[in-house]
């Protein structure tokens, strides 16, 4: 049962344009959502997060939007840069588990071309 | 600051061999985790620990064992390696203290991974 889904395995965008990465979840108990970025041969690194009490969180070029009714979140990168080319993982957690257990999506590979 | 360090980076095992993947963190985090990532898949939790001496199974624990004798170290043991254990293994840690920000508690810090092939 895939509780967190990233249905687009890859996305190609031109430098300067907006990149939109999508994530859907099925478990209504999730109350924290995170995006991780992963370069080849490196571990995932935290990018941005949002709690279920908010619908938007912004950090520089990165904005995460949460639509609880649709169980959908998205990551917007504006403007996209070649250095943003990486695999992006969406993750979700529920504080009801008592510890910070993250459920990960399968990732979306973003390629930003000059 | 080293963060989370994993060794080795690469390893090839023969079927039936055993090995230990090492993980150490210098951030004084009390929570530590082991994940595996198969091609085209997300990270799956193998085992986790909420502190020294306390470990528990995650989503895919079969074929693995862990121990947590210190806050810093969380080794993952593979006994009788099988081809199905060919994967990239990531260790992670996070900080949890009562009264802290829930968002901050959710952030896990990952090592660079160990790529394991079982042939």
Describe this structure in words.
The complex is a heterodimer of chains A (114) and B (119). With 114 residues, chain A is mainly beta. Helix content of chain A is 0%, strand content 53%. Chain A has strands at 4-5, 10-14, 19-25, 32-38, 45-51, 56-59, 62-67, 72-77, 86-93, 103-104, 108-113. In chain A, a hairpin with a 6-residue loop joins strand 4 and strand 5 (45-51). Chain A is globular. The mean pLDDT of chain A is 94. Chain B is mainly beta and 119 residues long. Chain B is 4% helix and 47% strand. Chain B has one helix at residues 102-106, and strands at 4-7, 10-13, 19-25, 31-37, 43-51, 54-57, 64-66, 76-78, 87-94, 109-110, 114-118. In chain B, the strands form 2 sheets. In chain B, strands 2, 4, 5, 6, 9, 10 and 11 form a 7-stranded mixed sheet that branches. Chain B has a 4-stranded antiparallel sheet with strand order 1-3-8-7, with no helix packed on it. The longest helix of chain B is centred in the C-terminal third of the chain and has 5 residues, at 102-106. Chain B is elongated, with a radius of gyration of 14 Å. The termini of chain B are far apart. Chains A and B meet through strand 5 and strand 10 of A and strand 5, strand 9, helix 1 and strand 10 of B.
Biggest sheet features of chain B: 7 strands, mixed
Question: Tally of extended strands of chain A?
Answer: 11
Report the biggest beta sheet of chain A as strand number plus sense, adding barrel if it closes: 6 strands, mixed
- The whole-angstrom Rg of chain A is 14 Å
How far apart lie the N and C ends of chain A? Answer: 38 Å
Catalogue the unreliable spans of chain A.
none
Radius of gyration of chain B: 14 Å
The overall average pLDDT of chain A, rounded, is: 94
Largest Cβ-defined interface: A-B, 24 and 26 residues
The geometry of chain B reads as elongated
Content of β-strand of chain A: over 45%
* Sequence stretches where pLDDT stays below 50 over 5 or more residues of chain B: none
